[in-house]
């Protein structure tokens, strides 16, 4: 069981892991940054130059109250306003499943940032598979706690799905980590064996393979038939 150190143990487990990937003094954009826990830690402990985008007004107010540079807006639209390579890291944490056009957003993230960090609930987890098998109903888990009719999630994906997507669109996975939730949001386990089956979340750091400015999103390959 992995426990973040004392300076970050008030953050969600996955955010603490993401924080460990960020180099000090870099430029960081947080998309859907919530109440700014991650950005606040990075600003105060790693002296990053932080920017955030959050659509919920009350969360934006909390971020500003922490001294963070956060604006209210739709991440899909606001990212288009930034110039190329404006940031070193662009972070999208547990929001990908709510994005209407994820390929377009990830493209924009890697246009304005050198690296992108993406995390999401893993729909390949064994509990989800078991619920589908034995109940025939849309699964409900701690990570995906909504009924089908009131969920904000408009798509689901597994860790394996994301790896295949990255390969098809010609990107490069710099780092990846799979985690299982602990007893609290501040704890968890890093899963190294069969992550698509045993992990509740996937976390990926990605970058462009094409450094010459070519098309980042070629036509996707046909389905590979890779085992789930």
Structural notes for this entry:
There is one protein chain. The chain is of the alpha/beta class and 228 residues long. It has a single domain, classed as Rossmann fold. The protein is 29% helix and 23% strand. The protein has an 8-stranded mixed sheet, sandwiched between helices. The radius of gyration is 17 Å and the shape is globular. 38% of the residues are buried. The model is unreliable at 1-6 and 218-228 (pLDDT under 50).
**What is the mean pLDDT?**
87
N-end to C-end Cα span: 27 Å
- Fraction of residues in β-strands: 15-25%
Q: Please, what is the CATH homologous superfamily?
A: Vaccinia Virus protein VP39
Task: Considering the chains and any ligands shown, give keywords for the structure.
alpha/beta, disordered N terminus, 8 helices, eight-stranded mixed sheet, 29% helix, Rossmann fold, 228 residues, disordered C terminus
Quick recap:
This protein is α/β, with parallel strands linked by helices and 228 residues long. It has one domain (13-207): 3-Layer(aba) Sandwich (Rossmann fold).
């Amino acid at each position: 069981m992995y426990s973040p150190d004392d300076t970050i143990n008030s953050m969600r487990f996955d955010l603490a892991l993401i924080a460990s990937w960020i180099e000090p003094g870099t430029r960081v954009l947080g998309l859907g940054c919530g109440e700014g826990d991650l950005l606040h830690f990075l600003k105060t402990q790693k002296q990053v130059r932080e920017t955030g985008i959050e659509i919920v007004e009350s969360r934006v107010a909390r971020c500003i109250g922490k001294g963070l540079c956060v604006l209210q807006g739709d991440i899909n639209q606001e990212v288009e306003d930034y110039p190329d390579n404006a940031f070193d890291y662009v972070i999208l944490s547990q929001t990908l499943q709510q994005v209407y056009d994820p390929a377009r957003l990830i493209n924009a993230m890697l246009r304005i940032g050198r690296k992108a960090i993406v995390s999401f609930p893993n729909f390949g987890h064994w509990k989800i598979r078991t619920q589908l098998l034995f109940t025939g109903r849309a699964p409900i888990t701690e990570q995906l706690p909504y009924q089908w009719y009131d969920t904000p999630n408009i798509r689901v994906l597994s860790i394996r799905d994301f790896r295949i997507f990255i390969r098809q669109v010609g990107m490069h996975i710099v780092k990846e980590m799979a985690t299982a939730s602990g007893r609290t949001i501040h704890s968890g386990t890093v899963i190294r064996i069969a992550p698509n089956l045993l992990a509740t979340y996937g976390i990926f750091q990605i970058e462009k393979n094409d450094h010459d400015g070519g098309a980042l999103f070629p036509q996707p390959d046909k389905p590979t038939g890779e085992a789930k």
